[in-house]
Amino acid sequence: MKNAVDPITEDFSFSDQREPHALRAREILRNHAEIRGLTGRNPWSVFLVIGIVAVQTALAAVLGRAPIWAGLAVAFAVGAFLDHALWVLIHECAHNLLFKSATWNRIAAMAANLPHVLPSAISFQTYHLKHHAYQGVYELDADLPNRWEARLVGHSPLRKALWLLLFPIFQVTRPPRLREISLFSPWVFVNIGVQLAYDAAVWAVLGPKALLYLTVSFFFSVGLHPLGARWIQEHYLVFDGQETTSYYGPLNIPALNVGYHNEHHDFPSVPWNRLPEVRRSVPEVYGALHFHRSWTRLLFQFIFDRRLSLFSRTIRTERGQRPVPANASAAA
Questions:
Q1: Total tally of structural domains belonging to the chain
Q2: Quick check: is 324 in a domain?
Q3: Which residues touch 28 (CB under 8 Å, ≥6 apart)?
Q4: How far apart are CA 50 and CA 134, in angstroms?
Q5: Global pTM?
Q6: 328 is a domain residue
Q7: Please, what is the angle between helix 80-94 and helix 121-133, to 10°?
Q8: Fewest CB within a 10 Å sphere: which of 76, 214, 254, 321?
Q9: Could you tell me if residue 65 is inside a domain?
Q10: CA neighbours within 13 Å on the CB side: how many for 52?
Q11: Of the candidates 269, 268, 312, 261, which has an alpha carbon nearest to the alpha carbon of residue 291?
């Protein structure tokens, strides 16, 4: 599909409208009530969590005795995909799509978090649910880059590539901006404790190269890698006027359908294995929207197209029933 981005801009796009998904979901349900039957939980996902964590830990054990170059190569070609799948499963747990009990979903999320080295499963749930409720609201949506972050990266291909490479580090800088959200809770400290115990065990039993493999796999899974283009695909304004975009390429198989992002935002209670059915059930809606077929192509487009930058996002001035103060987005 033809790209439709605007010329180079040094600011976000602004909207005074509410996020588009709740309204579209209501309209879809008027004509397709059968979509309600796709909502629910997929408890079988817990076996994916157990299996992928076991495989990633076993690979770390093997690569802990291998040359560093082998660990780096396997981290890019295999580990990144395994870690990315675990991210998707953490995302499922954030929506309570594995178990009815919130506690068991948190436990499953912390288990899926283990090979990621950094404790983030519980805090991800806190900020991700706000992202759904307040998409594009600068003070509440951690998915939006900081204004200083966007200025720092600018339109330089090198700086955009470095931003993707260091994406997890930049994400850590965003919560202080979201002052209305409390980061720390008892579960966050449990997550930290469990993660530190796993990391220490990997270092002590499997060796430092094993922990290096896991760390590099984690950074590739969300950064400078075709999988990292997922972050651009989801909400960057690659297509003019469309702030959420789906991906329908082959990498949805190892990525557990996370590319079906419009479908997910419209119906966040549908588990990952049923998202393609949402699209098939409503072709007149999702077929009319722009979409991506290649994360690899999008990765290079984002890096080298100077019209695309971290400013290629929509900031909204409407948070539910209460308007955002006009000068709120200027604080950074």
A1: 1
A2: no
A3: 35, 266, 282, 285
A4: 32
A5: 0.91
A6: no
A7: 60
A8: 321
A9: yes
A10: 30
A11: 261
